[in-house]
Structure to design on (150 residues):
């Protein structure tokens, strides 16, 4: 079955998923601590009920995790991009963030300019989300440290 056919058949699930992502989800970028200039997409949806997330996982994949009394459905790297590309047309509140993730994985610049392109996208995402520096400043995975490097 073609992807568009699946999407049409399960359109109610797409609206449901987008609504939950808009209200209880997070679309962001994380820094890979193992390399100097690598950042990756990270998407999570939080719920107190596992069944809510299992419905979404059946259609879109992702890793289901339990932390305390909350459940998280998580996608990262290319899987996050693929999920965002599937759901972006149904998003309302987080659509701008989703578009920046797609840009992050979009056309690559030459090695000389690629890092700056990524930094510009991350800065836009930080502005949209209104993140405060204390949320992203510590350790090897520090986004702030990476943004300030020349």
């Amino acid at each position: 079955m073609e992807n568009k056919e699946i999407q049409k058949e399960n359109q109610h699930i797409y609206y449901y998923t987008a609504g939950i992502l808009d209200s209880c989800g997070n679309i962001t970028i994380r820094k890979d601590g193992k390399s100097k200039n690598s950042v990756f997409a990270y998407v999570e949806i939080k719920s107190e009920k596992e069944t809510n997330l299992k419905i979404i996982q059946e259609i879109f994949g992702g890793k289901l995790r339990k932390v305390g009394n909350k459940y998280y459905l998580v996608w990262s790297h290319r899987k996050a991009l693929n999920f965002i590309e599937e759901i972006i047309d149904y998003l309302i509140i987080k659509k701008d963030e989703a578009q920046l993730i797609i840009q992050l994985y979009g056309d690559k610049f030459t090695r000389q300019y690629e890092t700056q392109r990524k930094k510009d996208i991350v800065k836009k995402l930080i502005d949209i989300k209104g993140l405060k520096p204390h949320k992203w400043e510590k350790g090897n995975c520090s986004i702030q440290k990476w943004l300030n490097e020349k």
Q: What stands out?
A: The chain has seven helices and four strands. The chain has one domain: 3-148. Helices lie at 3-9, 11-24, 50-60, 77-87, 95-104, 111-129, 143-148. The domain at 3-148 is CATH 3.10.28.10 (Endonuclease I-creI).
